[in-house]
Each structure stands twice: as structure tokens, then as C-alpha cells.
UniProtKB/TrEMBL annotation:
Residues 292-369 form the Galactosyltransferase C-terminal domain. It comes from the Eukaryota. Pfam families: Glyco_transf_7C, Glyco_transf_7N. Residues 156-288 form the Galactosyltransferase N-terminal domain. It is found in: Membrane. Keywords: Glycoprotein, Glycosyltransferase, Manganese, Membrane, Metal-binding, Signal-anchor, Transferase, Transmembrane, Transmembrane helix. Catalyzes the transfer of galactose onto proteins or lipids. Its cofactor is Mn(2+). It is a single-pass type II membrane protein. It comes from Cryptotermes secundus. This is Beta-1,4-N-acetylgalactosaminyltransferase.
Amino acid sequence: MRCRCLSAWRTIQHVARQSCLRLHSHLCKVVTVLAALIVLQYLITTIFQARQIEPLFTVNFTHSRSHSHWDRISHSRGLSFPAHNSSFNGSMHVSVEKTLSPVENVSGEAKNSSFLPTHENAVGNASSLLSNISLSSVNLTTSPSLTVPFTGKSLCPPIPPNLNGPIKVVKDSPSLEELEKRFPMLEPGGHYRPQECQPRDRVAIIVPYRDRREHLSTLLLNLHPFLQRQQLDYGIFVVEQAGDGPFNRAMLMNVGFVEALKLYNYDCFIFHDVDLLPEDDRNLYSCPEQPRHMSVAVDVLKYKLPYPGIFGGVSAMTKTQFKKVNGFSNMFWGWGGEDDDMSNRVRHHGYHISRYPANVARYKMLTHRKQHANPKRYEFLNTGRKRFKTDGLSSLQYERKKLDIGKLYTRILVELATPS
């Protein structure tokens, strides 16, 4: 009897042990699978967030039809200072001829009149213009071009050598006459090219504007030296809305894009609010690989990004990117909505929003009175996807009232076509 009991007890122990082993094995498998899922989720999240931050330093070699003697042109895209690379030691020289508009090369006698359009009150129809904009064309009826030989200068280094990093923002508002004396090296239209090397990017700064003279003066005071240290070939365009109706920031930026390309073959565009001043010159205003949100950290927002999809304040896009998304919507009259609509356009067309780190992409905002909000902005945002192809550059209508080629900037006064 005792033997039977012991045998039964051993059998029970064996079965229990086997069950525990099987249970332990299953638990191990479950834990392993859960751990793998957690790691996978972390990796996916990390990759997604990394796509939001533009690489600190990349060099992109792209073919350029407008430079027939260059097989490849390298463009700087970032900030960090790389180790020595023999391919960027100044050995790259160019000796080419390039078609330039007189904005770049105008004698002192002719700088105010030689290339002004013959029709001051022409109606701008962007849809007809877009088909004529190419990488190597300039509208000859608007600005007769000049062929200027290059002297074989070295290509500017990917990282400009004279950057200071954090800089002191100056909030003074000097007169335009005082500013002109401070920047004697500027060409007509606020155009600048470094003399020591061949710039890598041709950049148009587009500033939507109305009745903010002091802010404009402060922006020019800070922005010109900032851009010159970055060794850019740049011009500043102040697009001013005529009249006292609701302000249309997005439409003015579309106008700036169209009008700037009539004067010069720009590679990319920085859309810049007049009240934002950059605090770090490592925040390069160069051509972005992906549409770039520049004003990541603003002082009045405690230097924090309000939400991931924001694209307002200061943003950068190449000519190709801006044309592909059909520019900004023309529907947003009054404050708000147009930058979020552009954010939606960017992602809808397969791009992603890139950003520099928040400790570099810092701005101070000048105090100003807030505009009246657009009551229909949420409605237009919700239905915007239906209009991406029909609302934007393709539907832009405006009348150009004035084109003033000043010493500090090009002023474009326009009357916008109001919605029917």
C-alpha cells in the first residue's frame, strides 16, 4: 500500500513538474515576444522622430541643368563641423558662364531703372507663369538678363567659416538711410553674393508685409549680416499688400515666389515673418533636402515647439518642392490656418517636415498687435485636401502696383484679388 502511495506521489510530482516546465516555457515565449514588440515600437518611434530633425550635416550631390560645366554641385544642408574632407579643401574650381539678371550686376548709374518692367500695372497670373519657370530660365519680358563670366572662384565651403553660433539680437529700428550706410556691399534689391567664393545656394527671402515699418527695419538690421556670414547668394523681397482689407499672408508669399523668379533664378525660398529675428547663425538659410520649418523655438512660446505639424513663422522650401505642392492656399484671409494647410500639403505630397535642433533654430519675436482671426480657417483646413490642385499657385490672381528695387530690399506692392 505504501509503495502504491509513493508511486502515485511521484507520478503527481512528475506531471506537476512537466506542467510547470511547459508553463514556464510559454511564459518565456510571451515575455520574449512582448520585449521584441517594445523594442520594435521604440525603433519605429525613434526613426519617425529622426525624420522630423534634418541631419546636422549632409552633402547632396545633384545634377544641375543650369550649370552645364559642372557634373555635380554639392549643397550644404546642415550645421555640425565635420572632420577634414579632401573633397572640400578648396580644390574645386569652376570657370563657367551663367545667365544672370541685372539684379546681380547693375552699374551705379543704372541701378534704379535699367531693369524695371515696362508695365507697372500688369496683372499677375501665376498659372500661366508657372509653365514658363524652369531651372535655367528668367522672364526676359520682365527683366532682361545679362551673361556674366565667372572668374573660377572656389566653391564656398559646406560650413561657412565665419559663423558665431548664438548671436545677440538687436531690436533697434534705424532709418533706411542709416541701414544703407551700414551695408555698402549690397547690390540693388538687397542682393548679396560673397566675393571670396562661389556660393552654393541662391536664396530668396520672402517677407509678407503691411504697416510694420519699425519691424521691417529691425529685421533688415539683423538679417543682412546673418545671411552674409552664411555665404549665400541671396535677395530680400518685401511683398506688401495694398489697401486695408483682411491680410492674406499666404497669398503674398505666393506672389513673392512668382515675382522673385522673374528677376533671378533662385534655387530655394525662405518665407519669413517680419517680426521673427534669428538668434543663432548656425541656423542655415540654405536649400533644404525636405521642406524645413526654421522657427522651431520662439521666445514667446518658451522656446518649445507648440505641436509637431507646425510650419509657420519661418519656413524653407526649394523651387521644386513649392511648385509640387502648388504653393500656399489663397483662401486664408485674416490670421491663422495657412501654415497648417501648407503642412498638410507637404505631407500629402510625400515630403516630411525637417527641423534643426531647438537649441539652434531659436528666434525672438517682436511685440505686435494680433490680427483678427479668420473665422473660416478650420472649415478651410478640413476641406483643404480637395483643393490642393486648384487652390494655390495655379489660381493666384493679383495686380502688381509697384516694383521698387531699393538698396536694402526689393519692394513689391500688390493688390490681391479678393474671393467672389
